[in-house]
Amino acid sequence: MRPAEAHMRTALTGEIDVDAPPGEVYARWRDVEGFPEFVELVESVRRVDDIRSFWTVRLGRTPQTFYADIVDDVPERRICWQSTDGALHSGRVEFAPRDGGTHVALETTWDAPDPFAAIGLPLDLDHDLAQRDLERFKRLVEERNRAAH
């Protein structure tokens, strides 16, 4: 019998204000195939249907793949997702009107196989990663918003 594979859980959070209306911000986030443009860990996303997508991410040196399902979707307000296999991942992003734009709050959790977990070393994810991803997202949305108007 093989020993259980060790896992480490890492939670990442961030918040940012985007100078675009909630509908535009929500629509851009809902376009999962565009995530490699602004999420550092994401190598590719293939949309399977309105709920499911297939992800390839890089956690450390090793690419990981998984399917993720949207488990809660309130247009212009909230999107929640959960992986169904492979790298265990879940997240929630909320959108709120603020000063003519949109406040975006992100929470994600990674629970991935980690060879160092057994000796207590954390999964090597920079805790500023989510904030940097949000800053890239903000630039992307605002640039497209300016170009459209």
TrEMBL record:
Enumerate the InterPro entries for this protein: COQ10_START, ORF3, START-like_dom_sf
| Matches recorded under SUPFAM superfamilies | Bet v1-like
Q: What is this protein called?
A: Coenzyme Q-binding protein COQ10 START domain-containing protein
Q: What is the native source organism of this protein?
A: Microbacterium barkeri
| Signal peptide as annotated in the record | none
Q: Which residues form the Coenzyme Q-binding protein COQ10 START domain?
A: 18-111
Q: Which residues form a coiled coil?
A: none
